[in-house]
Prior knowledge:
Elements: H1 3-7, H2 11-24, H3 30-48, H4 51-57, E1 58-66, E2 78-79, H5 81-94, E3 95-108, E4 111-122, E5 132-141, E6 144-151, H6 154-161
Parallel strand pairs: 1-6
Antiparallel strand pairs: 1-2, 3-4, 4-5, 5-6
Amino acid sequence: xxxxxxxxxxxxxxxxxxxxxxxxxxDMDDTSKASLDTxxxxxxxxxxxDMDGMTALMADDMVWHNEGDKTIPWIGPWEGxxxxxxxxxxxxxxxxxxxxxxxxxxASGDTVAFFGKMNGTTTASGKEIGEFTFALRVKVRDGxxxxxxxxxxxxxxxxxxxxx
Length: 164
């Protein structure tokens, strides 16, 4: 499984968020800025396919959570580094991301939120999902990600996965 190939699709989002971070950082308290920096570094490592960088930014008890159709193999929650790294292999083999555009990012204390648009094709059916919005809630503790909580149009993802 080539996790790096799929993870690189978020590189453009990471670059865009870097510029947003520079603008927002002027108005943030130190905790919020540190949380945004950590979430951005994690996203950047994903975009580069840097598994070592991602692993270093993951708390041992990190949870990666996304709701949806439990028949889709990448719907979780996934708890702990090893489970999450395994999930990423399943995800990267099951979905080809064709659009990732982060439009907004905010941080408050230990919480970071990202909002944007995404699209992809599921490999199970070859069907395109169709452009949809996403939201991402990230929690940070001691410079490591403890929660990556993903919200998407899970109905559209399910339909594409099942070839509907």
